[in-house]
Amino acid sequence: MPPSPPVSLITISQLKRSACLLNLYELIKLQKYKNIIEWIIVEGSPLQEDAHKNKEKVEKLINSQSESMKIIYVEYSGPNKLSDLRNIGNNKCIGDIIVCMDDDDYYPPERVSHAVARLVASSKLIAGCSDIYMYEYLLKKLYKFNKFSENHSTNNSMAFKKEYLKTHSHQAGLSSGEEASFTNGFSEPMVQLSAHKCIILSSHDGNTYNKRELCVSSSAGKNKFLREIVDKSVEDYIPIDIFERMKTLF
User: Fold this and answer.
1) Strands of the sheet with 200-203, listed across from one edge
2) Which residue of 78, 129, 176, 187 has the lowest C-beta tally within 10 Å?
3) How confident is the model over 19-74, as pLDDT tens digits?
4) Is residue 77 part of a domain?
5) How many C-beta atoms lie closer than 10 Å to residue 129's C-beta?
6) How many structural domains is the chain composed of?
7) pTM of the prediction?
8) Of 224, 239, 233, residue with least CA distance to 133
9) How far apart (Å, rounded) are the C-alpha atoms in residues 237 and 140?
């Protein structure tokens, strides 16, 4: 594999996250990696009416953007579950490496370049991050997950070589927890990425999975998987202008 292989980005989005998607676009424009050839946006709105409205918003973004990266919108194909949408998106990607990016999270400028460099230097086919940071927007607190295992990651932190898709897919019909099926129960050898170069997960009212309960239990000392970060602030990781913008989303 060449040192700077072509990369596909993939995001599942929906109408209620349209403002988040625009924010993610701004984060993508800040990426240091220059061989991003496409951004696959898969329509995930549960209702066809919402999907139609969201399509108009995405098409407006496509028509206004001036990046060399191609934005490919995958239209609504029915009320698919999250795992089905991920499979649909993965099958559209043509890059040698596929980098996952959720629409509501913060990604630093090194997100893509770090994942690509680590994968290119390894014989492993998939990368991720288990000990990720998370910011809770209502509680105004920063947290960090303890590493579950060397082969664990949530989808928002994953990147993988296209070759991985020859033998791996998500189990159909899953609304959450689809990562386990994609990694054979988290048994596939995985490159662990550096948390500060990967993601700051967003905890907010619109999450697919309620993360606030985890945060509250952690601050109360009742959650061994998550710890509150008290010696640093979120501004140490997210530039203040971007952080102020993201606060308006949630």
Assistant:
1) 200-203, 133-136, 141-145, 226-228
2) 78
3) 999 999 999 999 999 999 999 999 999 999 999 999 999 999 999 987 789 999 99
4) yes
5) 28
6) 1
7) 0.94
8) 233
9) 14
